[in-house]
Specification:
About 15% of the residues lie in helices and about 25% in strands. Strand 33 and strand 34 form a beta hairpin. The strands form eight sheets. A ten-stranded mixed β-sheet has the order 10-9-6-5-11-1-12-13-2-14.
Length: about 725
């Protein structure tokens, strides 16, 4: 059932459900009807109006989108509701302006949600996924979400059966933010669990595409024959358990970084640099999806819509890197310019949408929910029984969008359903569109105004453009059309009363979701299983069988390996019996003088020297040492993690960053001369280190080769005067 705002509403919806089920008799109330089409909504990130060939790109090749446009319908006046990610996506999901659902601005994140935000799309809001799920659809979200990274706000709690993707923008990587919050590695999530961190952004488009194709194959319509396997002539398989499906595919690219990501097959292939590479891969992805629908005979029952969440950020002329084109529109993304809100859009539904056509009427992402609901045979009055009884000044509409199915199918004389459409920059109403006219209303303190040269310093004048004939917004005709200015200004007053303006709330606004004590989305640390019977002792307590070292540095006495130190300090004690990749290692050590270390997945350089990942063993009180840290030695040159400090070596220069609490570290490590328990886990691209039961380091290495790298286990001699002892060394292999 739909989420509701009160227990009374829950009761009301339950009664509706019971009545509907009784009427349907044998049919389940959430069962699909035969006429329901599948929906696929592809939402690219920051892609500009002229970044694809059907809309004028000259340096980016998009043959599959050319085909989609030739077989479908272009929308040249399709708008989003914000120039940035979060509010734009909130409107798509809810059919409401972001200002109505509280997703336009907050004091912590400004207008784009950041990692570990307490805010997100309110679970009380009803999303397009919930509307369709309740109508019998299988629903999935694959890609960038950006409507809250806390569990209450994730797609699986907003109507999606499953989720695979990153919870926010691809540039929101590990760092300390301005407010002191520690952002985690960029996580890839499966439903509500982080499965990789940091995710390899080069492969996001490819992996999202593969997941979408898998979902389509799994949810092919009942009775639709799957193609026979041409290699073994198997009989076509008929799927009798599938539902109609809704795939929301918010692609991460071209995204928010200076140089977008693409897989090796596309990297360096475009004439538009990394930006173009990523778009050409998006084009390939679209072709894969369309081909799969045709292959499975689903094309004539599937509506695919392809667009962007806002316009391109662009770079000024002469910039080194290309960051998209919004030509011939005025301005750039992140504002209320036409280039920020008006995005390239193609709809494809063979046999229903007329091929090779263009719609020049104003439609928006607000229309997706009511249109999909109509096509799925859902009555919105049943979805929102508590709406329509608004406070004075608030809209009485169920949602802010409209059913545009007549414009999709090119019904004769179909017109835009909008009397007025509003352009907000965060909480400031800046412009209104009605028909072909767009009015930038006069403002006392304009914020990031795309036409006023001195934002926030001087009041702005009214700007009126005919965005149908003056697409670049070069001719301000406000003085020539005072009647139109007056008409659109009246619409603005209605919006202010309903949706608010600056610090004045509107009567129709609702709060965002908010949680206490938000947590970062991080990989769960593997739980050490020290009681398992799979442990193997690799030191027998008597001698160094299975180990090798140069004579004189290492010895065994009383069940303990002792590091005596050599003059040059270049003598490792190397375990020769195995070179494990995934394993747990546990041992006891005690520090007496100098320092030593434990190395894992390390390269044998010969002459009893190794190079690789190392846990230093030293007194936490000694300065200039790596204090029980898990860190790479000279073989690696990028950031590693530590229990207390991090060292970053670049071109021979070392810098240091403290990331832990030295007092906590000192309380974790036993005093010099006492034994400590050291536990190391290597699995995939993760290394974890705990001392005396306390996790001190968790490293996720972004080197693709690391997760499959073999290497020796070794104990290190740091030179004359080193006195460190080891015992009870055990190894357990992991899958």
């Amino acid at each position: 059932m739909f989420k509701s705002r009160s227990s009374l509403l829950n009761v009301f919806l339950t009664l509706i459900t019971l009545c509907t089920c009784a009427t349907a008799q044998l049919r389940n109330c959430s069962a699909a009807t035969p006429s329901q089409p599948n929906f696929i909504f592809i939402f690219t990130d920051n892609l500009g109006y002229a970044d694809i060939e059907p809309f004028g790109a000259e340096n980016i090749r998009t043959p599959h989108l050319n085909r989609m446009a030739a077989e479908g319908r272009k929308f040249t006046h399709f708008c989003v509701t914000a120039g940035v990610c979060t509010p734009s996506r909130a409107s798509l999901m809810t059919g409401c302006y972001a200002q109505r659902v509280g997703m336009h601005l907050n004091e912590r994140d400004f207008h784009v949600l950041r990692p570990i935000s307490p805010y997100g799309l309110n679970p009380d809001e009803i999303t397009v996924a919930e509307v369709l799920k309740n109508a019998g659809y299988a629903t999935t979200c694959i890609g960038k979400w950006h409507l809250g990274d806390q569990p209450d706000f994730l797609p699986t709690n907003q109507g999606f059966d499953s989720y695979f993707g990153i919870p926010y923008s691809d540039d929101m990587t590990a760092r300390t933010w301005d407010d002191g919050s520690e952002w985690p590695y960029l996580p890839l999530m499966e439903n509500e669990t982080v499965i990789e961190a940091p995710v390899d952004r080069d492969y996001l488009t490819k992996r999202y595409t593969e997941r979408a194709l898998e979902f389509i194959e799994t949810h092919a319509k009942p009775g639709r024959a799957q193609p026979a396997n041409s290699t073994n002539n198997q009989t076509p398989i008929t799927n009798n358990s599938a539902k109609p499906f809704f795939i929301y595919l918010p692609q991460a690219m071209p995204g928010s970084t200076r140089a977008p990501y693409a897989s090796p097959e596309f990297r360096g292939k475009s004439k538009a640099g990394p930006w173009g590479d990523s778009i050409e891969e998006l084009d390939w992805s679209t072709g894969q999806i369309l081909d799969k629908l045709v292959e499975l005979n689903l094309d004539k029952n599937t509506l695919v819509i392809w667009t962007s969440d806002n316009g391109a950020p662009t770079n000024p002329p002469g910039s080194e890197l290309y960051r998209g084109s919004n030509a011939p529109l005025h301005g750039r993304g992140y504002t209320t310019a036409e280039a920020a809100f008006r995005v390239p859009t193609i709809a494809w539904w063979p046999g229903t949408i007329p091929a090779g056509t263009t719609c020049e009427e104003l439609v928006t992402t607000l229309d997706i929910l009511p249109t999909f609901a109509h096509l799925a045979d859902v009555t919105l009055e049943d979805v929102y029984p508590d709406r329509g009884k608004a406070a004075p000044g608030a809209s009485t509409s169920l949602v802010d969008g409209h059913n545009i199915s007549d414009l999709l199918t090119a019904t004769e004389n179909a017109k835009s359903p909008y009397d007025a459409f509003f352009y907000y920059y965060t909480d400031q109403l800046q412009a209104v569109r009605s028909g072909p006219w767009k009015l930038f209303i006069p403002l006392d303190e304009p914020q990031r105004h795309p036409h006023h040269p001195r934002n926030g310093e001087t009041p702005s004048q009214p700007y009126l453009f005919n965005v149908a004939t003056d697409i670049a917004c070069q001719q301000n005709v406000a003085d020539q059309h005072p009647d139109i200015v007056k008409k659109l200004a009246a619409f603005a007053e209605t919006a202010r009363a309903d949706l608010g303006d600056r610090n004045t709330p509107g009567a129709g606004q609702r709060p965002p979701g908010k949680v206490d004590n938000p947590k970062p989305q991080i990989l769960a640390s593997p739980t050490p299983d020290q009681d398992s019977n799979d442990w193997t002792a690799i030191f027998n307590g008597k001698n160094l069988d299975g180990w090798e070292s140069r004579e004189g540095a290492w010895s065994v006495a009383d069940g303990v390996i002792k590091c005596n130190g050599t003059d040059d300090g270049k003598n490792w004690l190397i375990y020769r019996t195995a070179e494990p990749i995934n394993f747990e290692l546990k041992l006891k050590y005690r520090y007496l003088a100098g320092n030593s270390g434990v190395q894992v997945r390390s390269k044998d350089l010969g002459d009893f020297q190794v190079q690789g990942y190392q846990v230093e063993v030293a007194s936490p009180e000694k300065q200039g040492l790596w204090h029980h840290s898990l860190a790479p030695t000279k073989e690696r040159s990028h950031l590693a993690t530590a229990g207390y400090r991090v060292h970053l070596g670049v071109n021979g220069q070392r810098t240091e960053k403290q990331i832990g609490d030295p007092e906590k570290l000192q309380s974790t490590i036993n005093p010099d001369g006492e034994w400590n328990d050291l536990h190391i886990i290597c699995q995939g691209n993760r290394l974890l280190q705990s001392i005396n039961g306390n996790l001190l380091a968790d490293l996720t290495d972004d080197d693709k080769s690391f997760s499959a790298r073999k290497g020796v286990i070794a104990l290190q001699d740091h030179g004359k005067g080193t006195q460190v002892e080891f015992k009870d060394i055990e190894l357990k292999m992991l899958p």
